[in-house]
Amino acid sequence: MLKIKNLHASVEGEKILKGINLEINPGEVHAIMGPNGSGKSTLASVIAGNEDFEVTEGDILFEKANISELSPEERAHKGIFLSFQYPVEIPGVSVTNFIKTSINQVRKSRGQKDMPANEMLKKIREKSALLEMDRKFLSRSLNEGFSGGEKKRNEIFQMAMLEPKLAILDETDSGLDIDALRIVSDGVNRLKTKDNATLVITHYQRLLDYVIPDVVHVLMDGKIVKSGGKELAKELEERGYDWLKEERAEMSS
Amino acid sequence: MELKEKLMSSYLAFEEHVDLENDIHQVRNKAIKFFEQTGFPTKKLEAWKYTSLNSILKEDYSIFPKKEDAIDYKDIKKYLIHDIDTYTIVFVDGIYSSHLSRTTHDKLDACLMSSALDKEKYKPVIDKYFNKIVPEESMSSLNTAFAKEGAYIRIPKNVVAEKPIQVMNFFTSNEAALMVQPRNLIIAEEGAHVQIIERHQSLTEQPVLTNSVTEVYVGKNAEVDYYKIQNDKTSSSLIDNTFIKQERDSICSMHTFSLGGKITRNNLKFYQHGENCNSILKGVTILEGKQHVDHNTLVHHTQPNCESHQDYKGIFSEKSVGVFNGNVLVDRIAQKTNAFQSNNNIIIDDTATCNSKPQLEIFADDVKCSHGCTIGQLDNEALYYMRSRGIPKKEARALLMFAFANNVLDSVKIPEIKKRITKQIALKLGVELGFNL
């Protein structure tokens, strides 16, 4: 589904990603872990098409098509979804109206008509229940004055509504209390099918107790330095990242 | 001939058509003298620093249009709030159009200034209210000098006007540029309630200059809810002078939607004359091209325990110019005043200009006054966020601008106006939003 080849990216001239190779197949959950500043969020942004980042080398293929030159909205239309680490507050646009606009714009890009109002309403009810969201919450301005947990729940709610092929969860677990974490990860798990894929980006191993990854990658200094099964996450939790740094140093010497 | 000279000589002609014995004429004489001394305002005056009238004063305006009432309801329907029942006072080229209007004397007066000024039975009201709160300024004095026609609205004690009252001014002159000076008087007596909608709309491409004066008296415990819809052609200019006097426990809200016109100047002054008054001033300005809107507001707090809320939002693109000059004056005795003012602007491209100047003069020591003004661009992070949800850039920008202006619409109490302004804003931003925000 997603194939990243030798991806280099920089922001304001500073090189952040230095040759990423990654392949994710339908039905898989991949986790990317790594210390702060290793480039995890940059990778998420670059896949989503954030124009602040410049791809200097390499390609991103999504369902075999090169998407490196596509705008963020075109990528969303193809079925890529990014759950933001810091969701943006948009005063004056309600959660409901935002998701309606989003869904209908995606449908429009696929040559479909707007979703009928009753169908939309039913879906909003169903998905907000999945995330245990209060109905009042839906008429509030998007993310404005939301707690950290509410913001993240709202991200997963949007994901549930949009039903993406590839969902990238950027630090969705950071700052969540245990109840919110359970709700969010339950949501993610229930949205999983054999046809979609999930890329979980996290600093902590805790989320991976709930959302079980098929593959864990370790990102350090703009490169994937190690990949393994879910047990790699446990090992990182116990041993930290320093042993990997040493391992790398040994390898390069 | 320069416009000022033309107006001076027109005044002599005007005197042949009005009752010189009427007390009002003394008021007019005084006003024309003041205008003769001062002339039109220039950028040298602090209050006109960012707005020059030069470009509109050079036209050869016709001051007395001939009576030519050739328009039908179908020509103006779209400018009216026509989906609800209203009283409507329609002027065509400054002249009252009886067949387009629906006036009333039943329980309340929604009729004509000309009859109020001429008829004996209105004399006590005119003596009490006419030109009592209009400051000596050149534009309002000029209007006073030629004061003859406009809307006269009086809501007696404890009467609630069941229908909104629309005051509509249409311009149809095909041959010559036109200058009109409507004079409105609105009185809501103690406990009365009224909603008013005012609009100036040209139906031709000829230059129009409107210099209007509206006096609004809000009695004890009364409420006036006023909407000005300014979405005229780029050949038309408007100098709107509105003066509001509030008695104790009254509420007056003024929404000004400035969406089009060549030069629009809103002189909006609130004078509070009793305790526990609430003055609400809201504005949405969206401009493009070579349009210019200047909001010059004043709230004068003269008594304790009053409130004022000013919230003006502007979106400017291309070569448009926005000016906001918001004055708040709190007298020494006006303790416990709550006065809020905010003016937020978005500049879409580098060629647009915005001047924002809050002016607070506070002489009381136990008050809550705040002001904030911002001039910025659209939030790029918010744009990216929306685009990553599949909303294309153009729609995302429109939605953001819409949301920005939206909270001013929250306080609009007539749903038809809210719907219409929403639609006009969407149209202006060039997108079908597909839902009502």
Short summary:
The complex is a heterodimer of chains A (253) and B (437). By secondary structure, chain A is of the alpha/beta class. Chain A has helices spanning 40-48, 72-78, 95-109, 117-130, 135-138, 148-162, 178-191, 231-239, 242-252; strands spanning 2-11, 14-24, 29-33, 54-62, 65-66, 80-83, 90-94, 141-142, 166-170, 197-202, 215-220, 223-228.
What does this molecule look like?
The complex is a heterodimer of chains A (253) and B (437). By secondary structure, chain A is an alpha/beta fold. Chain A has 9 helices and 12 strands. Chain B is α/β, with parallel strands linked by helices. Chain B has 2 domains: 3-273, no CATH class; 391-437. Chain B is built from 10 helices and 21 strands. In chain B, strands 1, 4, 5, 7, 8, 10, 12, 14, 16, 18 and 20 form an 11-stranded mixed β-sheet that branches. In chain B, strands 3-2-6-9-11-13-15-17-19-21 form a 10-stranded mixed β-sheet, covered by helices on one side. In chain B, 51% of the residues are buried. The interface between A and B is medium-sized, with 37 and 27 residues. Chain A: This is Fe-S cluster assembly ATPase SufC.
